[in-house]
Design goal:
The protein is an all-alpha fold. It has one domain. Helices cover 68% and strands 0% of the residues. Helix 1 packs across helix 3 and helix 3 packs parallel to helix 6. The chain is globular and about 30 Å long.
């Protein structure tokens, strides 16, 4: 089965559009579609951020703006090659959304 037809990949493609990510940003967030743990973390971030803001523009602003909890923007952290950076964003999104 092709990765492109796999449910979580389809969801990631929808998140990419919703967040207004470039192809390069999306590739840096998810460089390897077989990293299911990272993919699940990004999808959880998307769900938590959506629940927190319930406004696409506010989500995009939060993703691109460094805040008091991180030295870099959440998007920059998710584009890191280090999986732990993605998991830190996941923890922050969960904390802020109360989930």
């Amino acid at each position: 089965m092709s990765d492109k037809g796999w449910g979580p990949i389809v969801l990631f493609d929808k998140v990419k559009v919703h967040w207004g990510l470039t192809d390069e940003e999306a590739k840096r967030i998810l460089p390897d579609h077989t990293n299911h743990e990272r993919l699940r973390a990004v999808l959880r971030i998307a769900a938590d951020v959506n629940a927190l803001f319930m406004d696409g523009e506010a989500e995009r602003e939060w993703l691109r703006t460094p805040g008091p909890h991180m030295a870099v923007s959440p998007l920059s952290a998710m584009m890191s090659e280090v999986d732990d950076d993605v998991f830190r964003v996941k923890q922050l999104a969960a904390l802020l959304s109360g989930r």
